[in-house]
Amino acid sequence: MQPRRLTAVFDSWGFERHSSRTSPTLVELYRRRDNPHVRTLAVRLGILLFLATPLLAISASLVVSWNNPAFAWDGVAFGVALGVAFGVAFGVAFGVAFGVAFGVAGGVAGGVAGGVAGGVAGGVALGVAYGVAFGVAFGVAGGVAGGVAGGVAGGVAGGVTVGVAGGVTVGVAFGVCCLIVYLRVPIYALEALWTWLLTTLCETGQLSWRRAALRLPFHYHDVIWFPLPRLRPFLVAAGKENVALGNSLIAEAADTLGQKGPAQKALVELQAWSLERAAQFRWWARVAELDLDFLRIVETPTLMRSFRDAARDLYAAERSRSHHHKNAALERARTTLQRVQSAIVGEPHPEYLERHLLSVARTWLAVVAEEQASLAISMRERPQVPTPFVAGEVLRASNRELFKGRRDLTRIIDHDLTGDRRAPFLLLGQRRMGKSSLLNMLPEHLGTGTQVVTLNFQGLSGETHLQTPHLWLEQEVAAACGQAPSPPGRTAWGETLKWLEQVDAHLQQQERRLLIAIDEVERLQDEVERGRTSTDFLDLVRAMGDRLGRVRVLLVSAHPLARLGPHWVDRLISVVQRELGYLKPDEARELMCQPIDGFPDIYPPGGVERIAEQTRCHPYLVQLVCDKLTFSLNANERLQATDEDIELALDDALPNAEAALFNALWAQQTVDEKTWLARLARAPVPVARPDRVLKGLIRHGFVEQRAGDMHVAVPMFGTWIRDRKPEDEPPRAEAKDVVEAKTTPLA
Hints:
InterPro entries: P-loop_NTPase. The chain crosses the membrane at residues 41-64, 76-104, 116-140, 160-183. Residues 723-747 are annotated as: Disordered. Keywords: Membrane, Transmembrane, Transmembrane helix. This protein is mainly alpha-helical. The protein has five domains: 3-182, no CATH class; 259-381, no CATH class; 406-580, P-loop containing nucleotide triphosphate hydrolases (Rossmann fold), CATH 3.40.50; 585-664; 669-728, Orthogonal Bundle (Arc Repressor Mutant, subunit A), CATH 1.10.10. The chain has 32 helices and eight strands. The chain has helices at residues 3-12, 26-31, 36-64, 73-94, 96-115, 118-141, 148-165, 170-182, 185-203, 209-213, 231-241, 243-254, 260-281, 284-288, 302-319, 323-345, 352-381, 407-417, 435-446, 469-480, 493-510, 523-529, 536-547, 561-564, 566-571, 585-593, 607-615, 619-635, 643-667, 671-682, 692-699, 715-722, and strands at 425-429, 450-456, 513-519, 551-557, 576-580, 685-686, 703-706, 709-712. The chain has a five-stranded parallel beta sheet with strand order 2-3-4-1-5, sandwiched between helices. Strand 7 (703-706) and strand 8 form a beta hairpin. Helix 5 packs parallel to helix 7, helix 6 runs antiparallel to helix 7 and helix 30 packs across helix 32 (715-722).
């Protein structure tokens, strides 16, 4: 039984550990003499102490007594008896493991020492001391309960080697003792041969991997300093044959001294094998969850995460019925795998894992190529309308093709950043108008001379710095400007302002600018009303406009400042307001007809105009209706839409528009505003002199004048308002200044 496992067995039997011993005493074992395992253990220890000790002592004495007529055999008997006696005594006092180890080592050493004299005895003493020191100290005291092999080998080999050496210098003898006692080279040679033999027998089919695994040397011997030859291929083959067995063997081998390296390499090979099998059988979902054999027992390295990302895209492609989405997912997977391949090839000295993952990447790329070829055939045989429209998601650089228009606004922002202008900006726009998408596109439009840092206050409630949002700003700016001075990290926003002045001076030297964009800044007011933060952040924004030249602030909101509260108007009185409104008709047409290169002409005559009219060129609604239309065409396996398809897409889009847009737009209106919108939704109203409420609705794009009448600007929104339940509508009230006769348009 392996010493470390012997200690574990003692623990499982409930024997209490002490600082002075790691095994039970003979008395404790005697109390459990009815246990068959205890009896078996006692028999083994007894054989080792009472039988093996005399045999080892006699064998060693035969070697030492060669050509030594003065050898005293009676001294051997006395030494063995004395060692065994001390072993029993120590077994009672300090535990059976220590007692047996000391008894065997002392018996053999004492027996040999009793039979010789002079230098030889001194050599034996030296050898015994060395053997016992390393065998017992590294065994018993180190928790390897017993260390019997080390003690025996030390006593015998050390005594014989140094004794026979005689006149040889102590240094040479000491070195030989090191090889034999500490490194255990003779034992290792036998274990290496045995491992090689087991692997060969298994490979030739003469022995099963499971049976051979029980006979591996590291099961019985912890202190194997060197890797066992052919252990790695044994572990790999056993793992392929039986996953549970492979995992168990790798874990056990990795827990021993010299077999950790082979175990780690075997695990790498099995991981690569699992990934290749996953590609062969298309187990993308399992790879995405790291639910493959041999991938669950280790931390996930960076390259392995890349395979997980590729598997997610491949799984998405497998489940998608859209040719466009399937092709996009396959292309993302191919790009990810090519990056892995390039990263490994670019390494001058790739690690063992990287070398094997390179082969896996090639296998996966071949599978992706097969899937793309199969998709190309499907696209020719069963063509579909591409479905590139993204409704509701923030556009990023990866889908910049869908970002249409806004060029005039980006030019204005770029213009406002130049010169000596310092006041903060306010970008005002309705919900889902594309404000966040615009922020993502600003770096490309503004160029490298302007660094854009974006904070989204939508997640302010979950931020660590909820009460001190200026510290959040510090962190983001410091991360973006790597060469800037270190931020102070203090609760007073005045310290942040002083630090930003240093950043401003740094940017001045580099002739660069910094734009800090704060998306959904109105969420700050929500937290102020909850009492979880204050308006001090607005003081910082105002002070930044007064004292900084190269650092500018862009606030993004769906609400005008007056609606957020008087403190917003007071703190930001000098703000430069820019509005993000509906797309222009030609921009909306481009979005519908050319969302991506090669998009087919799917609309009936007048269909584009119908969608533009009903959505009022609202970017979210345009994408939503077009997405519904393309989905319907593909579901019915048609490539050309009819007028009925357009109307059906408009109707199908209403539930999504309600959840994602209309409810929020309606909730932000006052009672008077809701009254006006409900009235206009029922029928256009001619107005001679609009009141304050109606003027506000016109200013913010909810109401428009057409042919002298007031209309809800977005007909889809008007339809939704008109179809609302009666209990959801505001109380009916006659709007002021409504006249029946047609009036002149508003100036």
